[in-house]
Amino acid sequence: MKKKLFVFSAVFILSILCFSTSYAQTKVFKVQANQIKAEIQPTMWGIFFEDINMGADGGIYAELVKNRSFEFYTPLMGWTVSGKSVKEGDVLVLNRKEINTANPRYIQVNVNNADKGSISLTNEGFRGMGIKKGLRYDFSVMYRQKTAHLKLHLELVNPKGEIIGTGLLIPTETGSDWHKQAVSFNATATEQKAKLNIWFEGNGMIDLDMISLFPEDTWKRRPGGMRADMIQLLADMKPGFIRFPGGCIVEGRDLANRYQWKKTIGPIEQRQLIMNRWNTEFANKQTPDYFQTFGLGFFEYFQLAEDIGAEPLPILNAGMACQFNSAEVVALDELDPYVQDALDLIEFANGGVNTRWGKVRADMGHPKPFNLKMMGVGNENWGPQYLERLRIFTKAIKAKYPNIKLVNSSGTDPNGDRFDYLNTALRKMNADLIDEHYYRRPEWFLENANRYDNYPRNGSKIFAGEYAAQSDKTVSVNNKNNWKTAMSEAAFMTGLERNADVVSMASYAPLFAHVDGWQWTPDLIWVDNLRSYGTTDYQVQKLFSTNKGTQEVPILLDNKAVEGKDGFYACAALDKATNEIILKVVNTSAKAQNADFVIDGAKLKAKANITVLTNENLEQVNSFDNPSAVSPKIQEVDLRNQKLQFELKPYSLNVIRIKKA
């Protein structure tokens, strides 16, 4: 009997100890829901698009034909001429630069009694053409011919040489003028790496330009539009803004290679192609066939922003080429055309249809203004030469458009002499927004979650314009979008939102990468010719963007801001639109931890919705084969006495939404 009593007592004591230990380990988070610290800007979480990693041509711009107007440095790059009857001179590249500087080249094809196999042109696409079974494909071409005796047979061909779609175009117009003609046909099979083959039948000579092929399933079914699955991933994020067109392509390798927005609008055939400055930037990732055709131009960017409910943030050249390349600058007394481009862009976006550039916008199909509110001057520029030019831009823009907010560069790094010099000078200039960039190891992001705690609360606001945790090191081809990088970014982002009175905007970079044509990694979204998926980092960005709230309130652990103690990082917000309290809590430790969330200053309903993003393997990545390896899981939890009790899983981001009563 005594032995049994001893055993029972030992078990009881052990259970008490376990209960006490468990209780002692419970973390108590206090949310002060009635103490509003700051308004969270609708632009808090956005996206940054740059044409890097085949982001535009071969990416969101759905054109399947590479070098459609023969303007690459090698005019027939991407094309193959073949056939049993081909003779020297049957296919010529002609140049009409004096007549058409925007699109000088075209090809001339001479056909004599041709049939299948006699003479053909084959286009390889952008690392192949992604073709879907049953989908309609729209072919078009600009042509000129003296007599109408030719037929153009169109074939989609898979790598085995099998035909998976056919069409026929018979040019009908003759004379000295150029004409455009189109035909559509359906694919009979799905293929990642198809090619387009055009073979000629008949007799005669024909000039060809702007040879194009688009799928019918573009975003919003717009002819000549964007790739729908890629844009849907952006729309699903509900971004507050979209920054475009870059990035270093704004600057160019030299000033001749800079981005000029006026050359990207109007009829497609009048937009002047240039080399993409990323094509030879990295010796180990050469992409000599990387150009910008500008089928995706400034009109389309503004339209995209409108489509997905984001504020447009265009970035313009400040009269400086990339300082990592040529560091070429425009003389100060020759800067006027660059400044005028900025003024004209605002008129293009916002001007009435009776203004010069407002009329251009209206003629392109959008008479209603785009309501541009902000603009960046310079991308990642630095030094006194930047400040000299920035002052001239700022004075001219503010004089004519005082309500336009201007984004200014703080250089390439978040610290050091370069940063300190610009940060000090820009604050003295009362800059609207200072753009800070951080490409660092995950440890840096964890250590800097409190970066903005001691920033000035008045004056210039912060745009965290480019950031991404590097699993290896910056510019390394070995960087991965693993859960460790994404979780560290989530921790850092709680610090951004927790300082919403300082930080107005933030965006991850780069946005897109094509698996067969990338120059830089990590990236937010990866694609091939048919598929796309959001990385672990994408899942974090999406959760923050779709749960940002409208007002920041304190969340405390041991009466202090939650910024690393015991591996926790957290922020809290109210959402006036849904009458909810939103908590974002990151547990970066390797163990599960019990937590009580005590809400002061608000009456609550009885249930909370909790979204958890977690994986116990910090090296885990999403992929084409397993796109949901790290993806959010949603559950409903009961509240008791104004308190939420919940176990925070190891290595997790937890988004908690609680309805106010």
Task: Give an account of the 3D structure.
The chain has 661 residues and is of the alpha+beta class. Among the domains are: 24-39 and 552-660, Golgi alpha-mannosidase II (Immunoglobulin-like, Sandwich); 79-215, Jelly Rolls (Sandwich), CATH 2.60.120.260. Helices cover 19% and strands 32% of the residues. It has ten helices and 35 strands. Strands 4, 5, 6, 7, 8, 9, 10, 11, 12 and 13 form a ten-stranded antiparallel sheet that branches. Strand 24 (525-527) and strand 25 form a beta hairpin. Helix 4 crosses helix 5 (356-363). The longest helix is centred in the N-terminal third of the chain and has 24 residues, at 2-25. The protein is globular. The two termini are 56 Å apart. Mean pLDDT is 95; it is low at 1-24.
Short synopsis of the structure:
The chain is an alpha+beta fold and about 650 residues long.
Strand content range? 25-35%
The percentage helix is 10-25%
Average pLDDT confidence is 95
CA radius of gyration: 29 Å
Oligomer: single chain
End-to-end separation: 56 Å
Q: So, the CATH homologous superfamily of one domain?
A: Galactose-binding domain-like
Write down the overall geometry: globular
Helix count equals 10
Q: Indicate the structural class.
A: alpha+beta
What composes the largest sheet?
10 strands, antiparallel
Give the CATH class of one domain: Mainly Beta
The second-level CATH architecture of one domain is Sandwich
Unreliable stretches covering 5 or more consecutive residues: 1-24
The CATH topology of one domain turns out to be Jelly Rolls
Number of strands: 35
Enzyme class: hydrolase
GO molecular function: alpha-L-arabinofuranosidase activity
Catalytic activity: Hydrolysis of terminal non-reducing alpha-L-arabinofuranoside residues in alpha-L-arabinosides
Pfam family, one: Alpha-L-AF_C
